[in-house]
Amino acid sequence: MAVGLYNEIPWIMCKQKEAPPAVINTCNGRHCADTFQGPNGPNKPSLWTENWTAQYRTFGDPPSQRAAEDIAFSVARFFAKNGTYVNYYMYYGGTNFGRTASSFVSTRYYDEGPLDEYGLFREPKWSHLRDVHRALRLAKKALLWGTQSVQKVSTDLEITVYENTNLKVCVAFLTNNHTTKPNNINFRGKDYFLPEKSVSILPDCKTVVFNTESVVSQHNARNFHPSKIASNLRWEMYKENIPTVDNLSQKSQTPLELYTLTKDTTDYAWYSTRIEFNRRDLPMRSDILPVLQVASLGHALLAFVNGEYVGFKHGNNIEKSFVFRKPVQLKPGTNDITFLGQLVGFPNSGAYMEKRFAGPRAVTLQGLMSGTLDITMNSWAHSAGISGEKLQIYSEDGVDKVRWSPLTNDAHGPMTWYKTYFDAPEGKKPVALRLSKMSKGMIWINGRSIGRYWVSFLSPLKQPTQSEYHVPRAFLKPKNNLMVVLEETGGDPESIEVVTVNRDTICSYVSDHFPPHVKSWERKGDEFRQISEDDLKPAARLTCPDDKIIKKIDFASYGDTLGACGNFAVGNCTAPNSVKVVEKACLGKNHCRVPVEKSLFEDSSSSSCSALGFRTLAIQARCSRQGKDNE
């Protein structure tokens, strides 16, 4: 089809080895330098259309991490192997507002990219990837016009050179593929140190300007601070009525398929059936209850019997279908069995998506005196959507269409709406809601949905996949912002916090064998030269965002520091004057530079560090505006 439509335009196809001659086959993945065989034609460039910077999360997933070092390593190797282009997926994932998320995908989409959900730099990923491309640009002439040669030094060590002697340009990629062992490599009569699983880039075939494993860029950690202005929220509630066959207009002999029933207008649909029992149908012993069993194709289900909540069950991203099974209290006479079928997004990939189904498919009552009763064909009534949704009680125009009441003893029950008003938080930082004691539902701010939340779906680490939910400042007014929460299974609205978001915890972690910062060099025409006034030695560099200043040094150690930014710890040794040296260089400044030099830190009491092969300067600092905390 593509070739037939525009045969003069080069189309691309991801992960398609059999692409026709007019179409460029490309790579998606994490390590395309090693997994991609290259384009299937001699005149096609080698393109990497999706370099996965992490992995999007679905509810129930633990954090998805991919180190900046690993991404930079794969990028450097790709260009060393004739790569011409790399695109990051995702560079910025943003937020799945409303019902836009696909099935089970979390509202915070791809938060581990170089830009986090709030548009803040996730360091060192953002800067380290910027720097690998700075290094490649220093070598662009050699990459474009040079002839490639590859020398396999050993199983793990490799030298790739692009050189054009007429143009006097040369770039070398020195690679150590061993995942745990650093090594030395000799190139053109000089020894170069290569950390484990790393590539060093030499834009003049002499000078290491970048090593993928040596992160000289700043690190940071994200913080959530409760707003002082948007606090002490006063909540009111409205409980959704549980319908029966008398209130639902759409009839069918069996339960209808959920996607077809909702038609992409809502996540919810009611199912209800009515059944008569006499006393002889029910168990004779009061301590034995019949069991309601529902086989569902997904995604989630709430069950009610005679208006009373029975339970909740759901599938997951891998297995959407599930079986709900709960003891229920039935009575002689008329019994109403009602379900709320729930969707958590549409399918996002694969063949035959029109054959993906959801909703209850088989319903039985077990443990009756007559045995198991199949009520799948008992005649069902349906309705897409719930009443609060249809009345748009989450909006300024619809909020007064129902009677709200103060929180009562049953305020934490299922299918309950909550509303409050709050003023815009102080400052200009991003805003979020922390929902630590809520369960599952949706939130609207001034009538605009900020997406689904699902805090009760825990990962294998026993933590929610997502606890904070982004509220764009563009959604907010200065005063009296309406917040409406639909809680599906039961939660505590009084625990909801309005928080502001920053990355004011900044760190550096630089060892004395690291190369200097790549911005220390430039290429002017054919000349490759040093432009930095600083010595070409490694140094820790810190810069506060938004013109803030470094107010406090939370941690500093020159030795063998353990941990990561936000959680550093002193190792077996440290120079005792580490904090003093860093405070002198950095306190009260927007940015600072601390050389990683033994002469700055060593004294007679730090001899325990003498056995180390190399030493690391680790710093954690706190930024704030002059005279203020957490701003």
Automatic annotation (TrEMBL):
<comment type="similarity">
    <text>Belongs to the glycosyl hydrolase 35 family.</text>
</comment>
<dbReference type="Pfam" id="PF02140">
    <property type="entry name" value="SUEL_Lectin"/>
</dbReference>
<dbReference type="InterPro" id="IPR017853">
    <property type="entry name" value="GH"/>
</dbReference>
<dbReference type="GO" id="GO:0005975">
    <property type="term" value="P:carbohydrate metabolic process"/>
</dbReference>
<keyword id="KW-0325">Glycoprotein</keyword>
<dbReference type="Pfam" id="PF01301">
    <property type="entry name" value="Glyco_hydro_35"/>
</dbReference>
<dbReference type="InterPro" id="IPR008979">
    <property type="entry name" value="Galactose-bd-like_sf"/>
</dbReference>
<dbReference type="Pfam" id="PF21467">
    <property type="entry name" value="BetaGal_gal-bd"/>
</dbReference>
<dbReference type="GO" id="GO:0030246">
    <property type="term" value="F:carbohydrate binding"/>
</dbReference>
<keyword id="KW-0052">Apoplast</keyword>
<dbReference type="InterPro" id="IPR001944">
    <property type="entry name" value="Glycoside_Hdrlase_35"/>
</dbReference>
<dbReference type="InterPro" id="IPR048913">
    <property type="entry name" value="BetaGal_gal-bd"/>
</dbReference>
<keyword id="KW-0378">Hydrolase</keyword>
<keyword id="KW-0326">Glycosidase</keyword>
<feature type="domain" description="SUEL-type lectin">
    <location>
        <begin position="534"/>
        <end position="624"/>
    </location>
</feature>
<dbReference type="GO" id="GO:0048046">
    <property type="term" value="C:apoplast"/>
</dbReference>
<dbReference type="InterPro" id="IPR000922">
    <property type="entry name" value="Lectin_gal-bd_dom"/>
</dbReference>
<dbReference type="InterPro" id="IPR031330">
    <property type="entry name" value="Gly_Hdrlase_35_cat"/>
</dbReference>
<dbReference type="InterPro" id="IPR043159">
    <property type="entry name" value="Lectin_gal-bd_sf"/>
</dbReference>
<dbReference type="Pfam" id="PF17834">
    <property type="entry name" value="GHD"/>
</dbReference>
<keyword id="KW-0964">Secreted</keyword>
<keyword id="KW-0732">Signal</keyword>
<dbReference type="GO" id="GO:0004565">
    <property type="term" value="F:beta-galactosidase activity"/>
</dbReference>
<protein>
    <recommendedName>
        <fullName>beta-galactosidase</fullName>
        <ecNumber>3.2.1.23</ecNumber>
    </recommendedName>
</protein>
<dbReference type="InterPro" id="IPR041392">
    <property type="entry name" value="GHD"/>
</dbReference>
